[in-house]
Design goal:
Arc Repressor Mutant, subunit A, 163 residues, Rna Polymerase Sigma Factor, Chain: A, 8 helices, mainly alpha
């Protein structure tokens, strides 16, 4: 990066980083994560310095970039919460399953693969989170989530055909 760009970025950092930090900390309620996002905003600025240099209001660009980074972080947090929380919603099994009366294995369609049956039993019968089930299965949590989603979709299809 050219020296004049470096000086320009440094002056923007000195002037606006504290305000961006306060905004991020207020929204996230996590000082460490707020620092990380401020750094990400300024790393983005460094990468785009030649384009942003001509921006009429650099603070507006910095704020817009911070908002984007905050939205990404909130999306990441929501995805993490979904992966880590046990899924107890059994409405996809319709009226076929009563946990007090029988095991989930008894009502799962025979057409499901062993892997699909196993992942559904881990999540819905044992009450594991996607992360815990993924650990037991030796796969990433996102893969476990995909398997669960596909298995539930197949269950709905097979159970609706049986009616």
């Amino acid at each position: 990066m050219k020296q004049d760009h470096r000086d320009w970025v440094r002056s923007l950092y000195d002037q606006y980083a504290p305000d961006l930090y306060r905004l991020a900390r207020h929204r996230l309620r996590d000082p460490d994560l707020a620092h990380d996002l401020v750094q990400e905003v300024f790393l983005t600025l460094v990468a785009k310095a030649p384009e942003v240099r001509d921006h009429p209001k650099p603070i507006a660009w910095l704020l817009k970039t911070m908002e984007y980074k905050l939205l990404q972080e909130f999306d990441r947090q929501e995805a993490r919460r979904k992966r880590e929380a046990p899924d107890t919603d059994l409405t996809w099994l319709a009226d076929a399953y009563d946990p007090k009366a029988h095991s989930i294995d008894e009502v799962l369609p025979a057409q499901l693969t062993d892997r699909e049956r196993t992942v559904l039993k881990l999540i819905y019968e044992k009450g594991l989170s996607y992360r815990e089930a993924a650990f037991r299965l030796g796969v990433p949590p996102a893969t476990c989530g995909t398997w669960v989603h596909r298995a539930k979709r197949k269950c709905r299809e097979y159970l609706s055909e049986e009616r």
